[in-house]
């Protein structure tokens, strides 16, 4: 027997798959020409979904709502093309949300009597499932990291996806429930600490899941899910102590379409900053030899930290500009040095300095990691501390 043939047979067997992978990785065709039938069917489904939403909920939407919906279609289409797992998530959110809406039959009281609503799909039930799944995902990510178990980490990843699904369904259904209370009460569910903590958890998890797929590692899930679980812990305390899960009418200061774009942009920034801080923790641990053989390479951690801060800074900048425009409309001036505005500026300056040092001075290593972690403390005070300890024009957000 020719030993060279024996040793080369596995590589021959795997050659077609390796060649296909190599070809996909280095496909130099224009992006649109690389799209297949399923990609275009997804785009068609998104357009059809937007058309359905416009036809059904047209009376409840103003000009700006319709504009945002129309503009969201190409954004989500490109997201689905670039990041294929997002397609199933979008489809799941749509199906479960519409199913839940149908179960209500226009009667909010059915949330306490219909089986699926009571235990799974009312806004409170779905958000409770989200909370439980995030905590369990944290446990399994840590099991996977500490025991070197791919299965544990894989379960954690799947639970995180399930938590994101249930959380977004909860927000969509809560939006519908607010209109069942009254047309004058109905509003997008991003108006108080309860709702924005749900949004923060979902955005942070989504960004993490993207990096998990992009870098092909689940080791960071144990760290990122810690900050999400902390947010869930606050959410549960806030619900029990303040009955915050109840839907309340918007205070006059929030009765503006600016809220619908300012708040999501803000929390994309907050979520990205929180993710970068937890990646910074992983960087510092690996640098000191703690779990060093189980964490990604330092350059990978550094890259995730940089990209998270860059994305967060871009959206936080947009949110700050939108907030200034909103302030001019509501209070007659773009900037009033209100405590919330002042601390938002401090957060912006902190990350602007981080990025400047990175791009101009080549900031790397443990200094960058410590800075990112410190940035989380500054951001947390701007997010929560101002509401707890300071007063001003934003006092409607006090704990």
What do you see in this structure?
- There is one protein chain.
- The chain is 76% helix and 0% strand.
- The model is unreliable at 1-18 and 20-24 (pLDDT under 50).
- It is globular, with a radius of gyration of 23 Å.
- By secondary structure, it is mainly alpha-helical.
- Helix 10 packs across helix 13.
- It starts with a helix and ends in a 10-residue tail after the last helix.
- It contains 13 helices and no strands.
* Beta-strand percentage range: under 5%
Mean pLDDT: 89
Give a count of the beta strands, DSSP E runs of length 2 or more.
Answer: 0
Bin the helical content.
Answer: over 70%
Helix and strand string, N-terminal first?
HHHHHHHHHHHHH
